[in-house]
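Q: How would the structure tokens look for this protein?
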Amino acid sequence: LLLGQPGEDAETSQIEKRLMVLHQQGEKQAAYLLGRLYLEGRRTVADPHKAENWLKQSTELPEASYLLGRLYLSGMLDGELRVQEGINLLVKAAREGYSKADVALADAFLHAPGIKANPVYAWVFASLALEQRPDSSKEQQRLADLKLDLRQQQQASVLLAQERNSRKFRTAAQLPQLQTQVSQTELVSNF
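A: Here is the predicted structure in token form.
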């Protein structure tokens, strides 16, 4: 299934129908793919409300939580920003090992509408993203650009340790043994 490819209306309709059947059969990935289809608008006209509906049905998948969180922060739902819901979903996805969510959180805490810029939080999530993707020059540059004073550095170190402890997956190499060790936790109270 190539959602990113342009398609004919009949072909797109077939894909949508097949995904709906799979969803009715209990396949959560189908709801995620339908949400993505409507969010990205590559094979059909983008419809953020339909995307939200489908993504909500698949938030046990970290990639669905990530997309729904991004949608809530985008203002695409009638211009409404749903900042807290968006941040919560991005944190959930990040804690489930979806590294793009850490990048999105770092971005959000630097310059997202409706969120007060917080370089400490941005540093924490950029650091976590870099841990999962150590060859990411973008995250290395972001960390280099974030100038924290001594107090902010101390705060960031404490928050980074707290967030690491709340994660299901700390690194890709630890993924198998961590899946059963750490349960989902609430958003760290400082975030």
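Residues 16 and 83 are 30 Å apart (CA to CA).

The longest helix spans residues 150-166.

Upvote if useful.
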